């Protein structure tokens, strides 16, 4: 499926913490250790006599998929895929399949159809979803805006009332949230209480969306479309049932959506630009920048600035908080308030440094954004693989097979 092997499995009613969402194929692994260098938690280790790696325990894995995206041998596969089930639901006349794509998907999907990296294809994506048979084309950008209102308001309450600890961490990234819950459970009170945008859109689709569209929620089958492998874990969390049933029935990533479009014989490049459906399809530019590291911070600061100062920003761009890697900090002067200290973190090794500061009571920040993947969701583990990586995987795999056969023939 777009250069990655998938195990077609659509788990239902299981504890997601017991599932492997990515795993190393021992027969393809050449023990180079590249996956291990990209794993933020040490979940991938040597498991076999010849040094082949594997994910040793799903509890330690944050499901980011960076090992998969960086394996030069194509030896890592996804273990959970709802593609088969979605195709069946699309054929069912009694089911209304609802699409809920994330902001970053529309900046990665075009690559699978020969378009330059980073090409915006939001309109074509919506058109493709309709042609696949999705009955309602809604958009996760809608709830990205809701997240800003909720997360920004929560930050304001923490700053003004002091009844909850600072700094406040963002809670949009499922890899980061699992990392924090697993390795820094004592800092849970610092995490924003807001659900992620898809964590909000799922229940809204089956409640408000159902009411607005006149379609009963029992007939809805909601599909989260993400740039991320970890969102599959999030969709299965037992808390995701605020609508009274499963908020998110299935989760796929950008690669899987591209494969579905190709399987359906849709000429993606020639599709017209179409808008999402009303009720849960509108959004602002603040929602769009969610896909890049610093985007959540920038959008939240816009709200906080205007509420705290009572002034409207002359220029809504707060580029000082945009980051591509590492840790970026900024002091934002706010009239009638003072200085808001913020940090934007890309990568969990960097997040751990700030978590240690918070744990030690030495953090100077009010607000910290954490994205697991380098540069944010646009480089998520579910996005298209780099063409060079695919070519490298084919070359390395061929050489590896030859070497393995040669070594097997040696005597003594």
TrEMBL record:
Pfam families assigned to the protein according to its UniProt record, in alphabetical order: Fe_hyd_lg_C, Fer4_10
SUPFAM superfamilies linked to this entry: 4Fe-4S ferredoxins, Fe-only hydrogenase
Residues of the 4Fe-4S ferredoxin-type domain: 20-50, 52-81
Domain of life (superkingdom): Bacteria
Annotated keywords: Iron, Iron-sulfur, Metal-binding
PROSITE patterns referenced in this protein's UniProt entry, alphabetically: 4FE4S_FER_1 (PS00198), 4FE4S_FER_2 (PS51379)
Protein name: [FeFe] hydrogenase, group A
């Amino acid at each position: 499926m777009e250069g990655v092997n998938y195990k077609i499995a659509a788990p239902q009613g299981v504890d997601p913490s017991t599932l492997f969402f990515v795993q190393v194929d021992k027969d393809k692994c050449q023990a180079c250790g590249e996956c291990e260098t990209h794993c933020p938690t040490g979940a991938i280790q040597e498991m076999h006599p010849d040094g082949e790696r594997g994910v040793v325990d799903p509890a330690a894995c944050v499901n980011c998929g960076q090992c998969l995206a960086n394996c030069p041998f194509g030896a890592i596969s996804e273990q959970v895929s709802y593609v088969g089930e979605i195709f069946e639901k699309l054929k069912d006349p009694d089911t209304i399949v609802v699409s809920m794509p994330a902001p970053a998907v529309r900046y990665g999907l075009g690559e699978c159809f020969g378009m330059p990296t980073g090409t915006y294809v939001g309109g074509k994506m919506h058109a493709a979803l309709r042609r696949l048979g999705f009955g309602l084309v809604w958009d996760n950008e809608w709830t990205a805006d809701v997240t800003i209102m909720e997360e920004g308001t929560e930050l304001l309450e923490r700053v003004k009332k002091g009844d909850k600890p600072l700094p406040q961490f963002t809670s949009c990234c499922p890899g980061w949230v699992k990392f924090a819950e697993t390795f820094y459970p004592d800092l849970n009170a610092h995490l924003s209480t807001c659900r992620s945008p898809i964590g909000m859109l799922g229940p809204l689709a089956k409640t408000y969306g159902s009411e607005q569209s006149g379609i009963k929620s029992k007939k809805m089958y909601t599909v989260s479309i993400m740039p991320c492998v970890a969102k599959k874990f999030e969709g299965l969390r037992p808390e995701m049932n605020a609508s009274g049933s499963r908020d998110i029935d299935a989760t796929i990533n950008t690669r899987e959506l591209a494969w579905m479009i190709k399987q359906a014989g849709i000429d993606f490049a020639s599709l017209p630009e179409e808008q999402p459906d009303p009720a849960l399809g509108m959004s602002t530019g603040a929602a769009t920048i969610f896909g890049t590291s610093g985007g959540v911070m920038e959008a939240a600061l816009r709200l906080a600035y205007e509420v705290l100062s009572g002034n409207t920003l002359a220029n809504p761009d707060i580029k000082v908080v945009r980051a591509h890697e590492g840790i970026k900090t900024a002091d934002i002067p706010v009239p009638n308030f003072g200085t808001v200290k913020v940090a934007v973190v890309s990568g969990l090794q960097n997040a751990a440094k700030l978590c240690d500061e918070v744990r030690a009571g030495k953090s100077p920040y009010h607000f910290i954004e954490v994205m697991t993947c380098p540069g944010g969701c646009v480089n998520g583990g579910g996005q298209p693989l780099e063409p060079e990586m695919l070519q490298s995987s084919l070359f390395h795999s061929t050489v590896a097979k030859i070497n393995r056969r040669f070594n097997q023939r040696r005597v003594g």
